[in-house]
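Weekly structure sync, notes
Attendees: PL (lead), two postdocs, one rotation student
Agenda item 3: pending single-chain targets
PL asked that the sequence for the first pending target be pasted directly into the notes so everyone works from the same version. It is reproduced below exactly as submitted, 596 residues in total.
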Amino acid sequence: MYYPDDIVEEVREKNNIVDVISGYVRLQKKGNTYFGLCPFHNEKTPSFSVTPSKGMYYCFGCGAGGNVFTFLMNYENATFVEAVKTLADRAGIKLPEVEVTEEMKKAAGEKATLLEINKEAAKYFYYALRSDHGKVGLKYLQDRKLTEETMKNWGLGYSDKYSNDLVKYLESKGYSDEMIVKSGLASRDEAHGTHDKFWNRVMFPIQDLNHRVIGFGGRVMGEGEPKYLNSPETPIFEKRRNLFGLNFARSSKKGHIILCEGYMDVISMHQAGFNEAVASLGTAFTPEQAVILKRFTDTVILSYDSDGAGTKAALRAIEILRNMDMTARVLDLKPYKDPDEFIKNLGAEAFEERIKNAKNSFAFEIEILRRDYNLDDPDEKTKFHREIAKKLCGIQDEVARNNYLESVCREYGIASDVMRKTVVEYASKTGLAKPAIRPKSSMHEKMPPDEGVKKAQRILITWISDEPAVYSKIKEYIDPSDFTEELYSRVAKEVIDGIADGGLNPASLVSKFDSEEEQKEVASLFNTKITGLDGQPLEMSTIQEKERALRDIVIKIKENSNEYYKNKSADMTALSKVLEGKKKLEKLRKTTISLE
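Predicted structure, written out during the meeting:
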């Protein structure tokens, strides 16, 4: 769905960023900026800033930043369209109707109907649990020590023993058999007609991030197979793209998510105060679910059953999370099988302690691997050490690999220099790493622009956006193409164009970038601390010191730009850029930039 840029900009302008964020964060004014504790990471000293003149927020601690849309998207986990709609409603702006095809209307209407059917079914199951027929289900939940408040909060219910009660109820509400079957709540065959899929089960409504019921899980009462039955996939329910309990866990500020196996584990943990727990939906943990979790956290604590199946599931989840550059840790639940049993027997404080001491995923993998080898046998021990080396080769980050190597060597009494040699040998043999090649003294490779150049580019973008008049003093020397970082160049062009037409607006610029990472980096470009190249702040400097600092920054950017285009000298445009840049640089070195 798309809204015109002018409408989006009107919505942004009519939602004062300080007023909006104040609804979520306590802010205090300091000068022209507001500060508070960052809502995106735990901190004791406020580093979260909101600047009304820029229409932006930025955290100097974790780097979160953007405009009023990105704040709502990150805090509420909303899409851009949802953020626009929310803020339009807040400002009393009527958004234009978006033209849709008949096919789109049909699909949207079908999904809306399926959501209605699931909502009605959830109500039916909820009241059935509290009826005479539902006593068996209610007793089961009470025996599992769930409170009435918890049962209500999760909308727990019961499906009756009779095979078509729900179908009759939904038909009485006007829904067709075709749509009831399509919702996954019923089946149809020639022998029995349309009949309920769930019967004699405690029912767990599965909700999406907006608390809409999209499916169900049912636990059979007494004998019966399968023990747990889940809704089939439907147009509104994809198991691999949803997680049970995430609609509640998304609001947790614990800094991590706990991934469990079952519905009861999640509900028991939430009741005990661990509101960061979620579970996959009757399937193994999937890459799609990892993508969803990464929107909320970079750290996942695995709380799987301590049996063989649970261990196997944990190892698979670790691999998926590692491929997503996420940190995985593993809870030790012994002597109990699952979180529910653990909490009931040892309590919430003991569980909290286990969370604090959760084992890093690499140590867990090695611990499981060790079970396959007899370390009293030299051959077995050698094989074990080589398997460790193989695991270490799979870790791309050199610092992390070295830390894991040191840790595992301490744990298993291995000489670290021997393990390093084994890792190098394995990597070379398998092609996972190439032997180091010493460069010839006269053939050093050219290094990419250093961090000093990037810093100079960041400082200049912030400086000219804060003080647009500064650009008029340097525009004969600098243009967007001199910002050799691609994203910096795009931002510099927008800033310079905005200065030229008198419409510079950093907040509106953020929305022109699609990814969250780009938006954060763009926000950082408007919140760089203005310093000289020596890192000294310029707030209290004399005008002459500021002029020297500005000149040094421009020269550094221009020198890097010339070197950058010189390496593209086969390109005639680049060659012209180099010749022109050389002249400008010579002039710049003989010039004093005046800020008066």
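Discussion points:
- The radius of gyration is 30 Å.
- DSSP finds 26 helices and 16 strands in the chain.
Action: rotation student to compare against the earlier draft before next sync.
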